[in-house]
UniProtKB/TrEMBL annotation:
Name the UniProt record assigns to this protein: Membrane protein
Region of interest (Disordered), ranges: 1-27, 59-78
InterPro entries from the UniProt entry: DUF3105 (IPR021454)
Pfam families named in the record: DUF3105
Biased composition (Basic and acidic residues): 14-27
Polar residues composition-biased segments: 1-10
Originating species: Streptomyces sviceus (strain ATCC 29083 / DSM 924 / JCM 4929 / NBRC 13980 / NCIMB 11184 / NRRL 5439 / UC 5370)
Keywords tagged on the record: Membrane, Transmembrane, Transmembrane helix
Amino acid sequence: MGSAKNSTTAARKARIEEMRRAEQSRERRNRILTITASAVVVAGLVAGAIVLVQSQSDDSTAADGKGNGKGHFVTGSDGVRTWKGTLGRNHVVKTVSYPMEPPVGGDHNQVWMNCNGDVYTKALNNMNAVHSLEHGAVWVTYTSKAEKADVDALAAKVKKTPYTLMSPDDKQKDPIMLSAWGHQRTVTGAKDPNVDKFFAKFVQGEQTPEPGAACTGGLGQ
């Protein structure tokens, strides 16, 4: 009798010990899960904070006009200068300082200049015109040194050509220049055969970041 009771007591103690070990094991697992979950949450918060800071930094950089990176023009055998470097595509509201005049790309205003064969008589805001280039437009610019006959002839050509625009720009170095996204060249006048070549290659050309985007519904003068 005593032996049976002792056996029952020993079995009960064994079950209790087993249950205690199981409970301790569950507590350890729960602690591990809690620590892991907390670590994941903290990591997520840290990552979110980093992304937010970087985003704010990027926005600030772009808005200050420094989001275009460094680069330089490389002139091809056809006389077209191609920009080798980063051209930002952020929409910004503050003034962007471009590394070339007229600019061939970079961060820009969210509203484009109408470029459906539009001829402007006053200088444009570069930030709006660059958005037109992003849509695949060719931008014809000229200084006061350009011959009136050339200006008139080029204006007539632009008016007949969708995805083009034209405006004066006395800040540029040459009397007549043609610009597309990432590309630019000087021409001697309206009869220069390079005018037609540039139009044929770059009006909605392969360089276009946003092919098919509208050239109407933007800004006008």
